Amino acid sequence: MKSIHKNFIATLILGLLFSFFLPWWNVMVAAFVAGILFPLKKWLAFFTPFLAIFILWSFQTSIISASNDFILAKKIAQLLYVNNTILLIILTGIIGGLAAGLAGVYGKQFLNILKNQPQ
Amino acid sequence: MKLFKFLLSLIAVIAVFYALNNKFGDVPPLGHFLSPQTGFWQNEESDLPAETLSIEGLLDEVKVYYDDDLIPHVFAQNDADLYTAQGYITAQHRLWQMEFQTHAAAGRLSEIIGEKALNFDRTQRRKGMVYGAEQALAKMAQDPETMSLIDAYTNGVNNYINSLNPSKYPVEYKLLDYKPELWTPTKTALLLMYMTDMLAARDYDLEFTNTLRKFGKQNFDFLFPDFFDVNDPIIPKERDWSDINPVKVEVPFSELPKDAIANTFEKPDPNNGSNNWAVSAAKSVSGNPILANDPHLSLNIPSIWYVMQLATSERNTYGATLPGALGIVIGFNNDIAWGATNATRDVKDWYKITFKDSTRQSYLHDNQWKQVTYRTEIIKQRNADSYIDSVAYTHHGPVSYDSSFNTNNELVGYAMQWTAHIGGNNQRTLLELNKSKNYNDYKEAIKHFVAPAQNFAFVSREGDIALWIQGQFPNKWEGQGKFLMDGSNPEHDWQGFIPQEHNAHILNPERGFISSANQHPVDKSYPYYVFNDGYEAYRNRIINDFLRSKEKFDIEDFKNLQNNNFSLKASEALPTMLNYIDPNKLSAEQKRIFDEISNWNYLNNTNEVGTSIFETWFSKLYELMWDEFDSEAQALKKPFTYQTIYILNNYPDHEFMDIVDTPQKETAKELVHQSFIETVNTITDWQNKNGSYNWERYKATYVGHLLQGLPAFSRFNLPIGGNGDNVNATKKNHGPSWKMIVEMSNPPKAFGIYPGGQSGNPGSKYYDNLIDDWAAGNYRKIIFMQFPNEPEQPMNSQTLKPKN
């Protein structure tokens, strides 16, 4: 398995796991840890955790909301001026993904700094 | 380079964390708010009740059945459990509303929404809202039984709050980014104060003082008579008052202060009012008394009402509750039914206070300098330092207006005296009404009710019908409290109260019906002073005329009357208005509108264009007639609608018809003509912009979310007719907030509906599911379960168990 796959799966699983006991920033912790365990190069360090959490959050919210006919999602979409539940779900994915992506990059940079320390 | 990248990524992580973890302006903290696990997504659910719950403090099991509208039918084995369950279940559906309303009452909105609420909060504090709630709580605390039940209710609410995972906080908490705090008995008192402020805070003393000074006594009495020329009072004119030996108060020989201030507190909506009526067994088709009630309030969602059945083996009561208060407020049991309308009465007076010096530590009263006490009001503000306001209290009450609020003379203040500050055990009235079995129980129960005074309509299975106008009313000398009074003169003090048993009431009147619609409570023969400071003049006459029109009535008649859209106001004003228009002088467009209004039937139905034209026309005419009152320098009160139409019909050449700003002398004819031309312009502009101006579209009734009408959580453009002066008193954002009809068969047969839904969660299908039927004038047949039967149809059931 390539690092990119490992990082992707680790972010997903950790994100799911941490969500049971951490607030919303569980996705940042997940991506940070995955970034240390499975460092990726350049833009992949951002986009892999971004995609993992984008998929996780949009999938979870779609399931939750569909089971209630999107009643609240429609109203919140109006409230946040996105006016469309699909866009709201995408926005949710992007927000989670953005936080995770940056945390993933930071994880990698953190690892680099550690490696750089003189023994 | 590595260090640079490290720092850059660190900064980026911190920045995104900060940005998504905090609220900016009206944007909620997006990380929290959108997270699938903690965000609003967790509120995307339709209130399926858990099968069993354990609740601390319960003595026995409580069984709850939820019907198709999510109305809980609660069966407990003792009173304490019943009210614990009521607290828990209400909080389960209405927690945010319960807290928000009591925060509003207490002047604590700045804590939640910041500085923009500061003026509102200061106003609440200066009205003595918290002070009044404390007085009420002190009164309730003297009654151990009431207090123990309030404690049980509190415990129920707090069990729910404590069981709540933050991810399940109502969505408004997430939107505004704050947390619920624990419920307290003070909050129950604050909720009752919130209602009192809504219903018993209307007074025009300061406006009347300015109006009197500006126009003189003769004009004032002409514009504001103590009685209109028509009066169909709540207590029928036939009532003989010889059973009452009144306590007389003498009118003092003294001057009233002539000054008053420019800006006064915002008044509660003048439309806050209600209808209730009942027919006796003899006047009922089925031979059972029937009662109807519909309180008219702002159309808010979550609704002010939450419907419940509350039963133990000793009592079984159904009706509308106020989230935050115990028991049913308007409802019925197997033996009685009752309904309340607001008994508007002047129970708030103003006194001019003369301070000794600018330190304002003492004030003049009875030729002595008396000590001022100060109440420190600390208003916490979100993202800012607390605001501290010191409010002076005299023996009258809080000095609401002084040089730190709305005036600039350091030596003068204006103190409020208000029955809401007396403190009363209103909660006991509700608790006792719930279990009343007959007229005597009802009569005893309502005695504790101090403010807001209500017209309590009553029917019993035994066949009694009755109506008491209950509240604590100052016994005033003639004219007392109409205008600002002299706070230093002891003769201007309230001289005592009308003895409770002298409150106007009627039992089993000969006419076979009782009714009230916020009109004048009595005629001139009532031996205590009551003056008209804005009594409703139309709905009551339509209701009474209808109830006099036939021998016998049934539930269908009652429904039709509640949904009646006839405008008596229009029928009394429009003929005169039309008379003054010469159709030959109109343009084609004006002629078209003139024909439409000429052919109108006075019904404010959804499809009528006549209503839109009339209402626009009349309001423009009203403004033109009373242009003398347009003043920025001082608060004035324009005459009430009834008197306006009376003057229009009978005094077309009166000097008030003149438009002050024009050199020529106008009469009613010119005003009617001018306002009609303006109306045509307004209507055609509207039509060009929006299309058909039928009443449904022109009025555009909406039910607004309690948080400043948040559009996403509100319902707009409801297809409903009616207007403030119709029995169906539905205005743009105001109307029948709980429509109930009860026939005292065995068991009672009842219908009810309200513009909202049981759940306060905008994500629930029960959030607004009753609105469409409400707008259509439909009712839900009430499921009134008998104790301890199982439900006739399958229902979701829930067991509340004591926690070990």
From TrEMBL, chain B:
The record's cofactor note says: Binds 1 Ca(2+) ion per dimer.
Q: What name is this protein filed under?
A: Penicillin acylase family protein
Q: Where does Ca(2+) bind?
A: 346, 349
List the Pfam families hit by this protein, alphabetically: Penicil_amidase
Which keywords describe this protein according to UniProt?
A: Calcium, Hydrolase, Metal-binding, Zymogen
Question: What are the names of the required cofactors?
Answer: Ca(2+)
UniProt keyword DNA repair, yes or no? no
* Active site per the UniProt annotation: 274
Name its species: Paucihalobacter ruber
Please report which protein family the annotation says this sequence is part of.
Belongs to the peptidase S45 family.
Write down the superkingdom of origin: Bacteria
